[in-house]
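Box 3.1 — From sequence to structure: Branched-chain amino acid ABC transporter permease
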Amino acid sequence: MSTAELDPLAGARGTSIRTRWPFHLALAAGVALAVGFAAPHLIASVLWLSLLTQAIVDMILATSVGLLVRQNGRISFGQAAFFGLGGYLFAVLMVREIASPELALAAALIGPTAIAFLLGLVIARIPGVAHAMLTLAVGQAFYEVAFKWRELANGDDGMSVPLPRTLFGVDSGLFQSPSSMLVICWSLLVVLLLGLALMARSPFGQLTEAIRENEERARFIGYGTTLPRAVIYGISAFIAALAGVLQTLYDGYISPEMLHWSLSGMALIMAIVGGPKVLWGPALGAFLLFFLEDLAGDATEYWPALVGGTVILVTLLLPQGFAGLIAGLGRRAGERLGWGRP
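Predicted structure (token representation):
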């Protein structure tokens, strides 16, 4: 006997929750934004504010990887290419006085998005290991260019990025202050997650999920499958480029390591540990791994072994990641209260 048959009000409560999801989503976003704005007033340590800011940049990068996994069912070992490309485009165009800082920032977001969209049109149908290797090859190609082209940005030495006095009329010092940058990065992360949640519930989001589950069936009933996948590639690259621009603004420095495959691999691990099937899972995984690395690094010089062992344990014991565990517990609690599926 179903829950609705046992409790006639349960079905009504479940329907109410499902129809009021925009309100709940807006409420959650509002609370998250309030927490972000309050954080600098609650945390006195500049070191902790700086660590949190860097962790949030990683959370944005991991969110871009999670989007590819969740909506396209694809694994990328080249996401750092768009992260680094965003930072490099902004820095080179501005420092070489090719464009104004505002135009350079716009190009840093649009350029990687366009490249990823065009790339997606080519590799969208390639599944599995072959797709992962292609993304790795593309990412390393960008890394080699940045590493060896000294006239571009000093090659492997990297390049300092002095900011102008103002950017979009805002004092540039705000982008290099831990307290204000934490609020900026956190607010952008919340807005990104809100936008992705709305997209996932839109007809386009449901179409990409249908293509992910059974691409042949989607084509059979008349849907084109390449273009939606390419759009997801573009959105994912936009998010990664945004993270790269924020990193460059905050550090005032770029280096080829921003494009290296090891960063792509770390972002993928963050997404897997957090749980890519849940919207906020990759961000949670990035947060946990960032501070695990920091604590393990303070404890021992063999910290990579500790981090690796933890990742193996989490992968074996929590195949859906920490977010999957939390979401499952919440779903079961809701069913016991007769709220139906959230």
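Summary of the box: The two ends are 20 Å apart (CA to CA).
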